[in-house]
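Why Long-chain-fatty-acid--CoA ligase? Reviewers of the renewal asked for a concrete example.
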Amino acid sequence: MNYHTHGFNLYSIHLYLFPYSYLNNILNCYYYCYYYCYFYCWYLTLYFIVCFLRIGLPKAAILSQIKLLLMSFVHMSMGRTSDEVLYISLPLYHTTGFIGVVGAICLGSTVALRSKFSVSNFWNDCRKYNATAILYIGETLRYLCNTPKSLNDRNHNVKLAIGNGTRPDVWREFLTRFGDIRVIEFYGATESNCSFINYFRKIGAVGRDFFLYKWMNPYAFIKFDVDRGEVVRDSSGFCVKVARGEPGLLVSKITPWAPFIGYMGDMKQTESKRLHNVFKKGDTYFNTGDMFLVDKEGFVYFYDRTGDTFRLIVCVNNVVLQVSTFVTVVLLFYYICSGNEGRAGMAAIALKEGLKFDPTTVFKHVVNLLPVYARPLFIRIQSLSITGTFKHQKGKLTEEEFDPNKISDPLYFLDMKEKDYVPLTVNIYDSLVTGTIKV
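Here is what the prediction returned.
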């Protein structure tokens, strides 16, 4: 499809904080939104986006018209123009795919829309339709990097990749292999009132902690007790902000300018995302459930999800990066191990094509790079299933636990006496659950 609209220009402002004249583009977006009856459209429901959780039942998040417009205007702020072609191979029931289409309508640009993601046809499609920008989510870029190398890898016109959820190592490999593509990584959730965008090409970052944005949309990174599963409060009962370089839970103040509408027909779930009396009595913040780390330069990095946290503050993503030298995907989750105190972590591993699992090498790698409390006690080798939005399904793996009587996949146990990951036998399992073997 191809839509055309008239462009407009308000200002010509260039600041070093906004390369590629992003401030000019952003001001255009907000000016347009102002004339779109800001307050009215915040609460005028356009449609519902069903959020599929990695663990738990799906929820219907309410998406207002103005929020959809603001999300779609991100494409304008990236300097995209009406003569470009956006290639979308994502499901349109996922917000990233849908706002790509709406953003193209606002720009008057062309969309090349594929019914289903195909790793083998991805670059052929980009060449066929002369795509200049692509969307990605989750593992999309990794799938592209895992394809056999070709002389045509850089034979395309793609200059921009917009999305979220890619790892830094995949990001680097993607640029090295497919050329100087400007990757715009962002963070956001359909129901959230806060988001970040990395305009600066800083690998691994999702955005920057910027005082103007914080003034317009107050947010903070606060201390979170992983073991208790709750925020840390001081003697006065208020939350505590973390220091630079310290991981913290992202919360965003709920205001008329940044509302949290909630979930359709689920007041309990909606209220669970509200955090009250955060910094003063009576204030209310949206609890993203995600933890971030801000470096000394102000760049914001996704650190962990509170539901994925594994004994103290152990970053799941860090474990993934450490072990990804030997495997293609690692999922980390934990169980209550009967007969032992605390929780035991398991890594579900998908091996790279043509490679066999080498427990001794992996043991040395894990012991050398990870502290004791962060080492996966169990390893499960299997082909990992994904959702329709390219996220891994942890729910089933969590439910199956580590019982070799129920699981046919190869299981390994971290045996410090043998200095190796040894096969998890029924005898070892029984010794673990009875407390004969202490971990």
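The longest strand covers residues 284-294. This is the kind of structural detail the renewal will allow us to pursue systematically.
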